[in-house]
Amino acid sequence: MSRQSSAGPPTAGLSSDLLLGPVSGTNTFEETVQRLLQTVRLGLIAPGERLPAERELAAQLGVSRDTLREAIASLAGAGYLISRRGRYGGTFVSNVLPAPPLLAEKNPTGASHPSITAAQIDDVLTLRDILEVGGARAAAGRVLSPPERELLWSSLEAAAAADADEYRRVDSRLHLYIGELAGSPSLVPLLADVRMRLNELLDAIPLLAPNIAHSNKQHEQIVIAILTGRPDAATDAMREHLSGTALLLRGFLE
Amino acid sequence: MSRQSSAGPPTAGLSSDLLLGPVSGTNTFEETVQRLLQTVRLGLIAPGERLPAERELAAQLGVSRDTLREAIASLAGAGYLISRRGRYGGTFVSNVLPAPPLLAEKNPTGASHPSITAAQIDDVLTLRDILEVGGARAAAGRVLSPPERELLWSSLEAAAAADADEYRRVDSRLHLYIGELAGSPSLVPLLADVRMRLNELLDAIPLLAPNIAHSNKQHEQIVIAILTGRPDAATDAMREHLSGTALLLRGFLE
DNA sequence: TTCAAAGGTATATACAGCGAACCATTCCCC
DNA sequence: GGGGAATGGTTCGCTGTATATACCTTTGAA
């Protein structure tokens, strides 16, 4: 091995991946847009509900009001948000959310609908498995406060009661809340992120009633396992639940 | 329930966490510094080895050469990097890395060494458990190419052969490579990040020889489980391995 | 001696984000 | 009906960050 100086293992194969990746280039503006989009797409604020006032929200996000306004304008243009002025006005989540862009951004070549590579699917599904299964397990291993238990159960019921067009959103909320119960604040944004990526994929395939019923049963198992403090059961239930979606996705997209 | 418009569950308790958090405010400069620091602290480029040339590295990172230079200068000032000019010069990782800052940034009050709250420790440890255990399991569930198997094994041997002062670095490398084998590119940066946070904590406690020996044995079990394709065994081995560190940390810091 | 490859320096430009003040609209309450 | 208050809408200028480009300096191998 032709190393150049002191001791240590060869660096091959790993360093490149971390060093080479382009720096995120995170505009404050872009990041703000993403945050708002998450809030809407993941159902954290339901259609018809109001966001905090601009000045207030800007302060909470640590962003100038100008930048926040640009982000809102951008999402309003896309049909996600609606602003109303005057007293008791504000910025509201659109009552009817726009159909998501369906990815596939039209290759100039006109190829049917790829731009979703198998590698991307694997990436999302694998990461989701790790985060959600681990999160469910951690949640089941903690002692939950009564309000937490109540909110968890009501999230479950909300998912069970939802009809097809709001299912994706309510489902996301439930999963996100489970992650929140894991007790690692840093986990939540990661979960939200992978959930967004997953939803983009799910938007490309039909949502069938039997699948929903099945999901609801599994949700119940997961929640009960968490509430009764059985990490292994929660792990298994979540893993099985996710594998259903994974199979569905791979079947339709690969 | 005093809702305002259409159907859906109450939003209480969850939305705040995602919406309210301040936007990262990521300077390109700061981010570049972090990337370089990771590369050094996690042992991706060993002491004495060379970084790519400035112009080249800047291109890879998607950053102007000026910004990259500022980052390098900053790290050179802190003793992590050394630049040499002229042909066959370049930027090198310092042969003797500076002792890490030991956190605790000196409260004006002069309090001994807190600024590490129990919540922070739990956050890091929980997240690490989720990511590393999940990653090891995923890695064990994949078929690995011969070069991958070889590199994994040699990383293990490097960790076993390391002496105390380079152990942290080589250990990080091994764990990171296991994560890379999980097959989810997005996982690696997350792992690197949590690993950095963990190392900051570990730097505050002594590193004992028996611990190292013990770790090495566990590493072997993990790697073998991965190489032989036994996800459950890999999961258990990794979980046990991490619990050792977790106990150690909680004992010293809480 | 020459040349190539690397770091070091200087300058001009673009624009993103911030802060602050002010305008316009709407609705409750008196 | 009128006043007040809370909200979004608009404007302007300042500051700092990042980029791009060109050129200089150092070093060591050929």
TrEMBL record, chains A, B:
Alphabetic keyword roster: DNA-binding, Transcription, Transcription regulation
Domain of life: Bacteria
Record field: transmembrane: none
Keyword DNA repair: no
Keyword presence, Transcription regulation: yes
InterPro entries per the UniProt record, alphabetical: GntR_C, TF_FadR/GntR_C, Tscrpt_reg_HTH_GntR, WH-like_DNA-bd_sf, WH_DNA-bd_sf
Molecular functions (GO terms): DNA binding; DNA-binding transcription factor activity
Pfam families listed in its UniProt record: FCD, GntR
Full protein name: FadR family transcriptional regulator
Organism: Cryobacterium luteum
The organism's taxonomic lineage, starting at the top: Bacteria, Bacillati, Actinomycetota, Actinomycetes, Micrococcales
